[in-house]
UniProtKB/TrEMBL annotation:
Native source species: Actinomadura montaniterrae
Cellular component, GO, one term: cytosol
UniProt xrefs under InterPro entries: PfkB_dom (IPR011611), Ribo/fructo_kinase (IPR002139), Ribokinase-like (IPR029056)
Coiled coil stretches, renumbered: none
Protein name: Sugar kinase
UniProt keyword terms in alphabetical order: Kinase, Transferase
Highest taxon, organism lineage: Bacteria
Pfam family of the protein (one): PfkB
A GO MF label: kinase activity
Domain Carbohydrate kinase PfkB: 1-294
GO biological process: phosphate-containing compound metabolic process
Length: 306
């Protein structure tokens, strides 16, 4: 069992489906389903990793409020070690309300909250070095991690054998470009197409991936939504298609992809096969509501690849 430390954005999601529009006045619309999940590029990935059979420690900042209590309960229930979470009395826990459209689209109402207060001092350097993998989830919105002290801790962990992966949370160009400072300290970077092009200025995802490789990572995996994903290494670029499933909600698919990818690496798979594991994990989540939908165990995810 691999030990993975997830560091970064922790969000509580409230999701409802299907939602075709916001009712006027005081009207009520009856929907099929409402769920509350642990989400964000660190918390959502942490839950997915735990369900895929990894030992997970999650590090981040949440509020000392009811939302934070609920987020901790959900993560504990899924077997995630939350002792790395710090509680902020002056900030609320980051949260989103997501009305999911019938086609799976997901507009959102979002409060950044305590994520903005996370700093390098909340991360125990020894924890990073002791892990098999460290996943940076959303450093574009946890600005305090953009710190030479944290970069040094990442480099020391990598020197001891820890694998470092990174995913982003937002698609806002200024935030995404700010996360480029992390690239020299990362082994595998997994942005979506919009993030990759915003970070590099390249319109083509393959060109964007090659530009990102030049900044330091050994692998860049760009997720392309319905078009699948591409895996770029020094040896070339490979395209992977999506799996044919009925999409209900795309929330958390990127987090699940990261979890599948990291799990594959931890089981000794190469980056291309690990990306196939990520594809299967994302396809599993896409079939239900929320960032952890349908994820039971690794075997059921890999069955989609059979």
């Amino acid at each position: 069992m691999a030990t993975v430390v997830t560091v970064g954005a922790h969000i509580l999601d409230v999701l409802a489906r299907p939602v075709e529009g916001i009712p006027g006045g005081q009207d009520t619309v009856v929907v099929d389903q409402i769920r509350v999940t642990a989400a964000g590029a660190a918390a959502g990935t942490a839950v997915a990793l735990a369900r895929l059979g990894n030992r997970v420690v999650s590090v981040g900042a949440i509020g000392d409020d009811d939302l934070g209590d609920l987020l901790v309960t959900i993560m504990n229930r899924n077997g995630v070690d939350v002792t790395g979470l710090v509680r902020r009395t002056a900030e609320q826990t980051s949260a989103s309300i997501l009305p999911i459209r019938p086609d799976g689209g997901r507009p959102s109402f979002h409060v950044p909250g305590a994520n903005l207060t996370l700093t390098a001092h909340a991360v125990e350097p020894g924890l990073l070095a002791a892990a098999n993998a460290v996943h940076l989830g959303g450093p574009d919105v946890t600005f305090g991690l953009n710190d030479p002290e944290f970069f040094a801790a990442l480099d020391a962990a990598r020197a001891s054998g820890t694998v470092v992966t990174m995913d982003l949370l937002s698609n806002m160009p200024d935030l995404v470009r700010g996360a480029a400072a992390f690239l020299p300290h990362v082994d595998h970077f997994l942005p979506n197409e919009e993030q990759a092009t915003a970070m590099t200025g390249e319109d083509d995802p393959e060109k964007a991936a090659r530009a990102l490789l030049a900044e330091g990572p050994a692998t860049v995996v760009v997720t392309l939504g319905a078009e699948g994903s591409l895996v770029a290494t020094a040896g070339g670029v490979h395209r992977l298609p999506v799996l044919p499933v009925e999409v209900v909600d795309t929330t958390g698919c990127g987090d699940a992809y990261c979890a599948g990818f990291i799990t594959g690496l931890g089981r000794g798979e190469d980056v291309l096969e690990s990306a196939r594991w990520g594809t299967a994990a994302a396809a599993t989540v896409a079939q239900g509501l929320g960032s952890d939908a349908g994820l039971k165990d690794l075997d059921s995810v890999l069955a989609l690849l059979a």
